[in-house]
């Protein structure tokens, strides 16, 4: 050990670097997953992984007893608040049991003031909801007069605010405002509802997020769901977990492969260099078993020292550096260190590196161990049978560099594979994170700069008051900075129940998703009373329908003339396309028949009935009612995110009861978190790039040490140190240029293809041209400089 200090230093550094890189990779992967999960949880307002609708008591008890389930909580929509201080609303009144509130909801919201309701006349809600209701100076204990409905009956009561909280999920789900109520109020509503069951959900939070599709299916079968129940799982989260886990394993394999090559070459060169010494020890009586134990002791000591250094560095990275960076770029995200995860990372690193070291040392030890004393004295590791190639134009340095690469094809393939894989992963992560754009995210959920909603329609679909006039809409259009104003008006209608169009798959799936009653009973009820098959007739102006149907070859003229209509439904309705549908206002039976020209999923209304909504032109709805009820106004600015225009608009609307949602609001609350996710992703990409370069350094060190005798021979036959340094520099240049060519062709194709395969719907491709150019130029320079530096160091410090 004392005589081989340089060898030991390199082995210790190789082990330490490998342990450090593994810790960094897995810590970054877990942190990226945690941040993404946290952002998703905040957007949804809960940390539930599975939702079962209309759960039975036995299923709830089963969920609490299953080892896969961490938490199982109940929430129930027990009433609907329809009026507050004379303002028409449609807010759910939701009861959450202790598990749902304490374990599944509190973690997803922030800044809780007060307590969950305990008394029958107490409510709790978000600060966002209170502000929408007109309460500017709200406080715990203040009175909130509400009119609420249950089972068609209305009740009026004064409630008192027991607490309030911040809830970002409201911005992602307009119209999802609600009040939280006490268990006492819930029990009272159960009695009032009679035979009508309350809408209840069983939410399950899993212990382990890394689950297979088969495990989810087995879990679903375990609950023995009936036809009135639904089972919903966050498939997007499952996909992200699989992707991250696979990516981390691929990178870990590269690190282990490079560590194997480096340690193997160092040990092989060192042991074979001292093979005569080992032969003398055998002559003095050392057995093969003693020889093997002596060599293993040296390797174990180096392994132990390297693991201590690497694990300490990894603990600093995973326990301090990464959480600090996350908190710096995403303040208040609340990602705490996980001792269990850190321990598993350390254990994984120790096991994999130990296995790698012993595998890489197997052949060098076996070679020395099996040689007899006589064979040891004449042992030559150089293969003299190897064919050589004679040149006719002299020993040109560049041709020698190419020959050194091609004659060692196996190692060249490993070097190229390591560099190409690292740069491709770097490029893919950079493309993905560069496309996590806050504005794209907001634009996907808010296609207009401002959306104004009239939320005075009651829970039965009856129209509310007209809170804005056509004259006022014209005045909005005249404001500076307003480019376009689209009006959506609506009316409640009865749709003729056509058995062929709506009686089969559509109605059955609708009942499974939304109804507490079985399909057969709902169908009988509709057949007995056609008014039960109702929906919303939505009139859209020319600009709105052109945006909705752009690029689909739609006949706008026939739509405008009232000859055709568009059906809106999230449930497939292909058999309706081209057929005729009949509908009439609920006030009379004057049915009108129109041909279905298209089917879309986008719902422009906050309301829908059992039948699918129907979109028609302004002319059609004007023939139904004299003054159509204005439900929604979509406003587009001349310049997106124009704060001055928004200030003028809010000043104009201050005396109206329209619900106001804007891109600027959403960007302030949710878009910034997407930008922070992008910053974290760029950090991951940078670490991956460094890992790739460190792997390249490892392989270069191993390769140059392996060829040390070759360099000595070349020096003896007349090749200068400068020429040798130039040769290894050119070898690095070949690797660098080859990697650049691969990255700019196959690497880009793989990265872009991977992006389109896993991107979220809102994401648009933003190729990082500047970052990619800088990274590839830096790669080329490093690939040329590193081999020369390694050669100079090895020349001064023999193994």
Note the topology.
Elements lengths: L4 H40 L5 E4 L3 H9 L3 E16 L2 E10 L1 H8 L4 E5 L7 E5 H6 L10 E8 L2 E14 L2 H4 L5 E4 L1 H11 L5 E8 L6 H10 L8 E3 L1 H39 L1 H9 L4 H42 L9 H32 L2 H5 L19 H10 L2 H26 L3 H8 L4 E4 L16 H8 L4 E14 L3 H4 L2 H10 L4 H10 L5 E7 L1 H7 L7 H5 L3 E5 L11 E6 L6 E9 L12 E5 H7 L4 E9 L5 H10 L6 E4 H44 L1 H9 L4 H38 L10 H28 L3
Helix pairs in contact: 1-8, 1-10, 1-11, 1-24, 8-11, 8-24, 10-11, 13-26, 14-24, 14-26, 15-24, 24-27, 26-27
What does this structure look like?
This protein is an alpha+beta fold and 799 residues long. A 6-stranded mixed beta barrel has the order 2-3-8-5-7-6. A 6-stranded mixed barrel has the order 12-13-17-14-16-15. Strand 15 and strand 16 form a beta hairpin. Helix 1 (5-44) packs antiparallel against helix 8 (235-273), helix 10 (288-329) runs antiparallel to helix 11 (339-370) and helix 24 packs parallel to helix 27 (769-796). The longest helix has 44 residues, at 663-706. Residues 382-386 have low confidence and may be disordered.
> Tally of extended strands?
19
Shape: elongated
C-alpha end-to-end distance: 12 Å
Strand order of the largest sheet: 2-3-8-5-7-6
User: Helix/strand-derived class?
Assistant: alpha+beta
Mean pLDDT: 79
Low-confidence spans: pLDDT under 50, at least 5 residues?
382-386
In DSSP terms (H or I, runs of 4 or more residues), the helix count works out at 27
- Main sheet summary: 6 strands, mixed, barrel
């Amino acid at each position: 050990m004392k005589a081989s200090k340089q060898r030991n230093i390199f082995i210790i550094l190789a082990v330490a670097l490998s342990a450090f890189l593994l810790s960094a990779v897995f810590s970054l992967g877990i942190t990226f997953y945690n941040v993404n999960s946290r952002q998703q949880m905040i957007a949804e307002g809960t940390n539930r992984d599975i939702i079962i609708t209309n759960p039975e008591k036995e299923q709830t008890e089963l969920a609490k007893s299953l080892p896969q389930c961490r938490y199982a909580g109940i929430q129930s929509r027990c009433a609907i608040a329809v009026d507050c201080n004379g303002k028409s609303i449609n807010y759910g009144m939701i009861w959450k049991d202790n598990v749902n509130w304490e374990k599944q909801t509190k973690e997803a919201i922030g800044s809780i003031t007060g307590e969950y309701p305990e008394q029958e006349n107490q409510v709790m809600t978000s600060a966002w909801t209170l502000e929408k209701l007109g309460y500017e100076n709200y406080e715990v204990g203040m009175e909130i007069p509400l009119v609420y409905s249950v089972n068609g009956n209305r009740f009026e009561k004064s409630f008192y605010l027991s607490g309030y909280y911040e809830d970002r999920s409201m911005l992602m789900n307009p119209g999802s405002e609600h009040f939280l109520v006490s268990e006492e109020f819930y029990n009272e509503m159960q009695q009032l509802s009679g035979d009508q069951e309350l809408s209840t959900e069983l939410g399950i939070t899993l212990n382990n997020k890394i689950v297979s599709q088969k495990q989810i299916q087995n879990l679903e079968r375990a609950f023995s769901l009936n036809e009135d129940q639904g089972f919903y799982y966050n498939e997007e989260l499952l996909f992200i977990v699989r992707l991250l886990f696979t990516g981390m394993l691929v990178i870990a394999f590269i690190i282990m492969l490079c560590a194997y090559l480096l340690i193997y070459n160092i040990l092989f060169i060192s042991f074979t260099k001292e093979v005569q010494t080992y032969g003398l020890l055998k002559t003095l009586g050392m057995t093969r078993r003693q020889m093997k134990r002596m060599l293993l002791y040296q390797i174990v000591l180096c392994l132990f020292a390297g693991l201590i250094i690497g694990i300490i560095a990894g603990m600093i990275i995973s326990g301090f550096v990464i959480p600090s960076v996350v908190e710096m770029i995403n303040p208040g995200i609340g990602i705490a260190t996980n001792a269990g995860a850190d321990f598993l990372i350390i254990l994984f690193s120790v096991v994999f590196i130990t296995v790698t070291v012993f595998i890489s040392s197997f052949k060098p030890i076996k070679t020395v161990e099996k040689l007899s004393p006589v064979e040891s004295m004449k042992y030559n590791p150089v293969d003299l049978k190897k064919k050589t190639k004679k040149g006719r134009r002299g020993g040109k340095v560049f041709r020698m560099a190419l020959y050194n690469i091609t004659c060692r094809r196996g190692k060249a393939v490993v070097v190229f594979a390591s560099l190409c894989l690292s740069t491709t992963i770097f490029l893919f992560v950079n493309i993905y994170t560069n496309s996590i754009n806050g504005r794209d995210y907001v634009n996907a959920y808010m296609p207009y700069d401002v959306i104004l909603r009239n939320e005075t329609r009651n829970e039965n679909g009856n129209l509310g008051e007209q809170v804005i006039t056509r004259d006022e809409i014209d005045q909005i259009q005249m404001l500076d900075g307003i480019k376009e104003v689209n009006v959506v008006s609506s009316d409640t209608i009865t749709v003729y129940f056509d058995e062929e169009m709506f009686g089969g798959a559509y109605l059955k799936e609708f009942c499974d998703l939304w109804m507490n009653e079985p399909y057969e009973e709902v169908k009988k009820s509709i057949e007995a009373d056609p008014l039960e098959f109702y929906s919303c007739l939505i009139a859209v102006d020319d600009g709105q329908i052109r945006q909705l149907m752009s690029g689909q070859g739609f006949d706008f003229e026939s739509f405008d003339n009232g000859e055709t209509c568009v059906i809106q439904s999230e449930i497939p309705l292909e058999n309706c396309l081209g057929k005729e549908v009949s509908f009439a206002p609920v006030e009379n039976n004057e049915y009108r028949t129109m041909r279905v020209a298209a089917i879309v999923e986008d719902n422009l209304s906050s309301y829908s009935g059992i039948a699918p909504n129907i979109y028609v032109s302004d002319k059609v709805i004007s023939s139904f009612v004299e003054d159509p009820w204005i439900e929604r106004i979509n406003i587009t600015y001349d310049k997106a995110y124009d704060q001055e225009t928004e200030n003028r608009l809010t000043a104009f609307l201050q005396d109206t009861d329209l619900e106001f949602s804007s891109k600027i609001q959403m960007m302030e609350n949710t878009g910034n978190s997407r930008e922070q996710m992008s910053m974290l992703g760029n950090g991951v990409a940078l670490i991956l790039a460094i890992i790739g370069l460190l792997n390249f350094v490892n392989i270069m060190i191993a390769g140059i040490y392996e060829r040390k005798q070759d360099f000595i021979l070349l020096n003896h036959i007349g090749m200068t140190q400068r020429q040798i340094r130039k040769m290894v520099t050119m070898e690095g240049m070949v690797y660098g240029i080859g990697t650049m060519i691969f990255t700019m062709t196959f690497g880009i194709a793989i990265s872009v293809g991977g992006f389109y395969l896993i991107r979220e719907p809102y994401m648009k491709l933003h190729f990082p041209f500047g970052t990619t150019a800088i990274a590839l130029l830096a790669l080329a320079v490093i690939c040329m400089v590193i081999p020369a530096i390694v050669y100079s160091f090895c020349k001064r410090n023999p193994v």
